[in-house]
Specification:
The chain is mainly α and about 200 residues long. It is built from eight helices and no strands. Helix content is about 70%, strand content about 0%. Helix 1 packs antiparallel against helix 2 and helix 2 runs antiparallel to helix 4.
Length: about 200
């Protein structure tokens, strides 16, 4: 995965250098504008390919994480090696792992463009109604404190915090809890992956 990222960066750097060379070679003449248009289109396509490689890497990394989570759910001794949540029974630990998996799946769906910010909030509102997810969220608060404040995952975490607070205050109006999209919480960049 790191090799693919380096290759994508190298391709971008090479393309940029190529653009400079092409401009120097064709600085004069009637074909210059058309050649620059073609080169600009190629650079745009290369950028799209680089973005697609990045999304594929994110999905692959999530698959590896889910595979490990599946193993932890199947084998409690493996869950013990990865868990940072003390005082859980084996069954409750499995539930926490699965709650993390559900949350991570929603983040992945947003990161790769399957759902937009408003859809993500809608799915999270429903997930916040689940008592096990609420316990998972409460138990992993320390995990989220290390996230950069401007990261997508920190912004999603802040939105979930508000949802859970408002849900606790008025559980009958669960469908309207949470920050409005205009509240400045719309994420702009990807995060490192699921929390916990």
């Amino acid at each position: 995965m790191a090799t693919q990222k380096r290759a994508a960066r190298s391709i971008g750097s090479a393309a940029t250098a190529g653009l400079g060379l092409m401009r120097a070679l064709f600085a004069r003449g009637p074909r210059r504008r058309r050649q620059e248009e073609i080169l600009a289109e190629l650079l745009q396509q290369l950028t799209l390919m680089t973005d697609e490689i990045h999304r594929a890497n994110v999905i692959q990394q999530y698959r590896l994480t889910v595979d490990q989570m599946d193993r932890m759910v199947d084998d409690p001794s493996l869950a013990d090696t990865a868990s940072t949540l003390p005082g859980l029974s084996k069954g409750r630990r499995r539930q926490m792992i699965f709650a993390n998996r559900q949350y991570g799946n929603l983040l992945l769906a947003h990161r790769v463009g399957v759902c937009d910010w408003d859809e993500l909030l809608g799915h999270l509102r429903v997930l916040c109604r689940n008592e096990i997810f609420a316990e998972y969220w409460d138990r992993t608060v320390e995990h989220r404190r290390s996230l950069p404040a401007d990261s997508m995952e920190a912004r999603v975490g802040a939105a979930v915090d508000v949802m859970l607070e408002e849900l606790a205050d008025d559980p009958d109006e669960w469908w309207i809890v949470g920050p409005a999209p205009a509240a400045g919480l719309r994420p702009d960049e990807p995060s490192a992956g699921p929390v916990a």
